[in-house]
């Protein structure tokens, strides 16, 4: 049985994410244990890792680094052990080199890029809240276009276009999902995206990065 560590650092809709992961594993007939944790030892030893995030880039970053040993454990699992990793919303944004929300903040640098504010059209409001099409490029995690739920004002401006595995549009085109090696993330909330989101979570829990 594989363990999926859902990181608890005081940010993110953990209850909904946990329920969605459990349901996705059940529907995909996968033998997975979903563990909500901030224990560095558990995270370092996990087979797969999910990092949620709700709020500002800087606030989530501070909360993450405030847990002693958590970031080191995450890096050990992801960079050294090459465990599959999924960031959700701000959990994706934290993978960038830099976030520009309320001033520049260093990210984890796992996928090259900068987090910037959406450039909206006149009459469009921020944050972008609601359902939007995700245009897929055929990656194993998102093999086809679907409808997903977003809540965000900032987006991940990828330095390498080949890391973008799904895109959406609100005022401007922006990456809805990215992946590099064993590291992936979604700007949308799969735990709130019904069948499309559950399918993605199920694929993540059996994903074997190349």
Automatic annotation (TrEMBL):
Residues 6-194 form the Glutamine amidotransferase domain. It catalyses: L-glutamine + H2O = L-glutamate + NH4(+); 5-[(5-phospho-1-deoxy-D-ribulos-1-ylimino)methylamino]-1-(5-phospho-beta-D-ribosyl)imidazole-4-carboxamide + L-glutamine = D-erythro-1-(imidazol-4-yl)glycerol 3-phosphate + 5-amino-1-(5-phospho-beta-D-ribosyl)imidazole-4-carboxamide + L-glutamate + H(+). The keyword Lyase applies. Keywords: Amino-acid biosynthesis, Cytoplasm, Glutamine amidotransferase, Histidine biosynthesis, Hydrolase, Lyase. GO terms for cellular component: cytoplasm. It comes from the Bacteria. The active site is at residues 89, 189, 191. Its EC number is 4.3.2.10, 3.5.1.2. CDD domains: GATase1_IGP_Synthase (cd01748). One of its GO terms (molecular function) is imidazoleglycerol-phosphate synthase activity. Pathway: Amino-acid biosynthesis; L-histidine biosynthesis; L-histidine from 5-phospho-alpha-D-ribose 1-diphosphate: step 5/9. InterPro entries: Class_I_gatase-like (IPR029062), GATASE (IPR017926), Imidazole-glycPsynth_HisH (IPR010139). GO terms for biological process: L-histidine biosynthetic process. Its main location: cytoplasm. PROSITE patterns: GATASE_TYPE_1. It is found in: Cytoplasm. IGPS catalyzes the conversion of PRFAR and glutamine to IGP, AICAR and glutamate. The HisH subunit catalyzes the hydrolysis of glutamine to glutamate and ammonia as part of the synthesis of IGP and AICAR. The resulting ammonia molecule is channeled to the active site of HisF. PANTHER family: IMIDAZOLE GLYCEROL PHOSPHATE SYNTHASE SUBUNIT HISH. Heterodimer of HisH and HisF. NCBIfam families: IMP_synth_hisH. This is Imidazole glycerol phosphate synthase subunit HisH.
């Amino acid at each position: 049985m594989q363990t999926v560590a859902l990181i608890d650092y005081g940010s993110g809709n953990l209850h909904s994410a946990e329920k969605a992961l459990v349901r996705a594993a059940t529907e995909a007939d996968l033998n997975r244990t979903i563990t909500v944790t901030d224990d560095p030892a558990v995270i370092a030893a996990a087979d797969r890792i999910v990092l949620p995030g709700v709020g500002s880039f800087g606030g989530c970053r501070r909360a993450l680094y405030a847990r002693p040993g958590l970031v080191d454990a995450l890096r050990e699992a992801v960079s050294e052990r090459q465990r599959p990793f999924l960031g959700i919303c701000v959990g994706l944004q934290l993978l960038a080199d830099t976030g520009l929300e309320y001033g520049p903040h260093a990210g984890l640098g796992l996928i090259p890029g900068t987090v910037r504010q959406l450039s909206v059209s006149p009459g469009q409001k921020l944050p972008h809240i609601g359902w939007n099409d995700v245009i897929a490029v055929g990656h194993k995690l998102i093999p086809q276009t679907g409808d997903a739920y977003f809540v965000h004002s900032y987006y991940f401006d990828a330095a390498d276009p080949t890391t973008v595995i799904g895109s959406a549009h609100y005022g401007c085109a922006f990456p809805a999902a990215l992946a590099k090696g064993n590291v992936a993330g979604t700007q949308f909330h799969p735990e709130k995206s019904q069948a499309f989101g559950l399918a993605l979570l199920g694929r993540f829990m059996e994903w074997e990065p190349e």
